[in-house]
């Protein structure tokens, strides 16, 4: 099989644009001309039919057919036959539970890491591509058997990363403080805070920040660092245990 190819998008919709509008050129260059059909996983939202319609409309406008996994009588077989996989956003806990319930964790890992088919995620779909969903922003509305996710990359991501509003009087924790609390636990991997409009392209052992906004990188025991689009994040792919850098 070929090397892993991932496009991990922070958000499906950017202010002022339509569904996946801000990243449609990235999607086209990522999937290329070899892929004809995309397998869509709508498990993060309750109304899977409506979600699949939205995704199908978008992908067809870009020249790709789209099959939704919830319409298949055998989800495992659908993954085995897929040319590319796209997991959409919604509630991360609901999504991960459905992946476990349908015995898809190992199947998707195999297709992406061994067979080299392209994997695209947005929001919750980006969360589940990482080691775990410990750094999601979502409420645990259902109970997956584990917080361990697909592990397509050896670190975690926080999609929709928000900077503190300097004018706000809100006294609750900032996103940065919450990630810091996660890193107070031993052996926790790096967390990449992807702002809305940002995405991470992974090709084999190379990872590059793309999109129109930057990202904030959190390493356990270190001060967070700020990164612009174009940043090479390949070092994050080498080892999940970067505490000793």
Automatic annotation (TrEMBL):
**Chief place of localization:** cytoplasm
Sorted UniProt keywords: Cytoplasm, Dipeptidase, Hydrolase, Protease, Serine protease
A biological process (GO) annotation for this entry? Answer: proteolysis
Q: Where in the cell is it found?
A: Cytoplasm
- EC numbers: 3.4.13.21
Q: What class of enzyme is it?
A: hydrolase
So what does this thing catalyse?
Dipeptidase E catalyzes the hydrolysis of dipeptides Asp-|-Xaa. It does not act on peptides with N-terminal Glu, Asn or Gln, nor does it cleave isoaspartyl peptides
Which GO cellular component term is one of those annotated?
cytoplasm
Molecular function (GO) terms for this protein are: dipeptidase activity; serine-type peptidase activity
The record's similarity note reads: Belongs to the peptidase S51 family.
The record's PANTHER family line, in alphabetical order, gives: ALPHA-ASPARTYL DIPEPTIDASE, PROTEASE S51 ALPHA-ASPARTYL DIPEPTIDASE
Function per UniProt: Hydrolyzes dipeptides containing N-terminal aspartate residues.
Its protein name is dipeptidase E
Q: What's the source species for this entry?
A: Eudyptes filholi
Gene symbol?
A: aad-a
């Amino acid at each position: 099989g070929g090397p892993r190819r991932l496009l991990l998008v922070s958000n499906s919709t950017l202010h002022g644009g339509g569904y996946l509008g801000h990243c449609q050129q990235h999607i086209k260059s990522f999937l290329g001309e070899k892929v004809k059909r995309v397998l869509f996983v709508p498990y993060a939202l309750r109304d899977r039919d409506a979600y699949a319609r939205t995704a199908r409309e978008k992908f067809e406008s870009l020249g790709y057919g789209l099959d939704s996994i919830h319409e298949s009588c055998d989800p495992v077989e659908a993954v085995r036959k897929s040319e590319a996989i796209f997991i959409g956003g919604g509630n991360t806990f609901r999504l991960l539970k459905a992946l476990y319930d349908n015995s898809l964790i190992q199947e998707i890992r195999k297709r992406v890491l061994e067979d080299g088919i392209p994997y695209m995620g947005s929001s919750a779909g980006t969360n589940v591509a990482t080691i775990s969903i410990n750094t999601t922003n979502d409420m645990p509305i259902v109970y997956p058997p584990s917080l361990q996710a697909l592990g397509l990359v050896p670190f975690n991501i926080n999609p929709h990363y928000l900077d503190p509003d300097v004018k706000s009087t809100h006294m609750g924790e900032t996103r940065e403080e919450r990630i810091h609390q996660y890193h107070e636990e031993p052996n926790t991997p790096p967390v990449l805070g992807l702002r809305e409009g940002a995405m991470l392209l992974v090709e084999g052992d190379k990872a590059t920040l793309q999109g129109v906004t930057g990202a904030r990188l959190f390493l356990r025991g270190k001060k967070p660092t700020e990164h612009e689009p174009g940043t090479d994040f390949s070092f994050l792919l080498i080892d999940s245990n970067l505490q000793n850098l």
